[in-house]
Amino acid sequence: MIEVHDLHKHFGGFHAVDGASLRIRKGSITGLIGPNGAGKTTLFNVIAGRLPPTSGRVTMAGEDITGLPPHALFHKGLLRTFQIAHEFSSMTVRENLMMVPAAQAGESLWNAWFARGRIRQEEAALRRKADEVLDFLTIAHVADERAGNLSGGQKKLLELGRTMMVDARIVFLDEVGAGVNRTLLNTIADAIVRLNRERGYTFCVIEHDMDFISRICDPVIVMAQGKVLAEGSAQEILRNEAVIEAYLGTGLKNKVPA
């Protein structure tokens, strides 16, 4: 689905991404882990078009998408969420979902004057779809709540819900568990797995919670110092000496037995 070829992103003399190459398979839930400063979010930002690469190439289903802006990637079905949720706080949860699809009839001044019936029909369909999404995510009870009043976990579910309002092909989730309590994190994990299995979504997930990663992700890719350090199942990664050293500063072989 996504292939990254020798990607570099430099900020002056700092190489945030330094020759990373990786592949995200269609239909997978791929985990992306690594210590702080490893380049994970910068990699996401380059793939998702928020930052131009210094060099290298990104392809999606064989098509070169390197440097395309976020709105162009949105129309191709590539979406991302953020570590800090970006909701429209003064709008209701349902309204946040309804505004996601592009090219709505109500955006046209001509339609506002001469096609009001079409606008009403489209809004009714969007409302039904939004309510289906809220039911799927088990947050229908907050449909009429202002989004700014939601908890951190509910805001993450709302961001996930936005991806369900369009025909997403691949979704990049940046620290979906940050600031989320364990109960809601389990709800988020269940929703991701269901979207993957029932609706064919492909995911790439940045997360520091290894229990969360181990539960839903296969494979897991490890980054360190802007490069891909290792790839494998969660169990293989947890036993990988280089990964342990990158995270903890020492390898298992150097630990003194208890």
Automatic annotation (TrEMBL):
Residues 2-250 form the ABC transporter domain. SUPFAM superfamilies: P-loop containing nucleoside triphosphate hydrolases. Keywords: ATP-binding, Nucleotide-binding, Transport. It comes from the Bacteria. InterPro entries: AAA+_ATPase (IPR003593), ABC_AA/LPS_Transport (IPR051120), ABC_transporter-like_ATP-bd (IPR003439), ABC_transporter-like_CS (IPR017871), BCA_ABC_TP_C (IPR032823), P-loop_NTPase (IPR027417). Pfam families: ABC_tran, BCA_ABC_TP_C. One of its GO terms (molecular function) is ATP binding. PANTHER family: CONSERVED COMPONENT OF ABC TRANSPORTER FOR NATURAL AMINO ACIDS, CONSERVED COMPONENT OF ABC TRANSPORTER FOR NATURAL AMINO ACIDS-RELATED. This is ABC transporter ATP-binding protein. It comes from Rubellimicrobium aerolatum.
